[in-house]
Amino acid sequence: MRIASLVPSSTEMLFALGLGDQVVAVTHECDFPPEAPELPHLSETVIAPGLTPAEIDAEVKRVVGQGDPLYRLKAEVLESVRPDLIIAQDVCAVCAVSYDDVLAIAARLPGKPVVLRQDPTSLAEVLENAVDVAEAAGVPEAGTALKTEMESRIESVRRSVEGLERPTVLALEWLDPPFTGGHWVPEMIGNAGGRDLVGEPGSESAEHEWHELVGLDPDLTVVMPCGYDAGAAAAQAREYEGRIRSTGTRRIVAVDAAASFSRPGPRLVDGIELLAELLHPAAATATEGLARVEVRRED
Questions:
Q1: Which of 258, 259, 223 is closest to 241 using CA atoms?
Q2: In which band, very low, low, confident or very high, does the pLDDT at 47 lie, cut at 50, 70 and 90?
């Protein structure tokens, strides 16, 4: 089977399922595993490089507000790779090519490829996506095995922090303006033995004014701007440190959002393990090599 992935998390899921050799094209943002960026790219962004967080937010709102897509689908590339299966999403206009655009182009392609939509908003749905993708690709047993493995790791974290005091957490998915973590992030915090002060499981990431976050007094603030690695997140955290500290936080840690938090794929489990280690270092240990930067800590 020839598979085209229009979602970075689905690309990661396909490789985790052992289907990497069947993936024929990916998005310009598919950077994991290392083999993925070498494949033909099916998309490009309309957002100019080098913008500040505030400028990016303004441009996203402008483009979306006028009804235009944030990503261009390269129809000629999609046609050339002749996919049997296309994986797309419709949960976030900021994250991927428009699902409607994908359907329209797929309908014109020879062979009429199947289009599988992946729109998880919870951890349970992310786990179930492993099964859905595997079934669509004709290897259902691989999906069941991957789901079981991820569930086992999450349960192991839960057991390691069971009965411990639950530190409070503020998750920031953007800094200008501040967006607090939504979708699966509050669940990740809960599974790691923490208590999200703002986010609700399954809810969308919420935009705030900084004054709305003053006085929350979180034990830990996790800076996870969508699409940024730990180094870039740390640089932003330092730039906005005064604003972040106005919340009353005692600790600021920057993480690799793209790797383990913002993409609903297998590496969310890595993110849960990392959160557990940050919150309960005596009880939990994260996978070696997971990036995090300690920006500020008050003991």
A1: 223
A2: confident
Q: Which residues of 150-186 are buried (b: 16+ CB within 10 A; e: fewer)?
A: beebbeebeebbeeeebbbbbbbbbbbebbbbbbbbb
- By mean pLDDT, which of 65-79, 90-104, 111-125, 156-170 is the weakest? 90-104
Choose the final residue of a domain: 94, 121, 148. Answer: 121
| 3 state DSSP class of 95 | coil
* The CA-based dihedral angle spanning residues 133, 271, 24, 98, taken in that order and rounded to the nearest 10 degrees: 80
Q: Position 16: which residue type?
A: A
At residue 10, φ and ψ (nearest 5 deg) are -70, -35
Query: Is the residue at 149 inside a domain?
Result: no
Are residues 108 and 179 located together in one domain of the fold?
no
More confident residue, 27 or 91: 27
Q: What is the CATH number of the domain that holds 74?
A: 3.40.50.1980
Q: Greater confidence, 129 or 47? A: 129
Give the count of beta carbons closer than 10 Å to the beta carbon of residue 105.
Answer: 19
Number of domains within the chain: 2
β-pairing verdict for 114-117 and 85-88:
parallel
Tell me if 288 is assigned to some domain: yes
Asked if omega into 218 is within 30° of 0 (cis), the reply is: no
- SS3 category, 223: strand
Q: 169 and 293: one domain?
A: yes
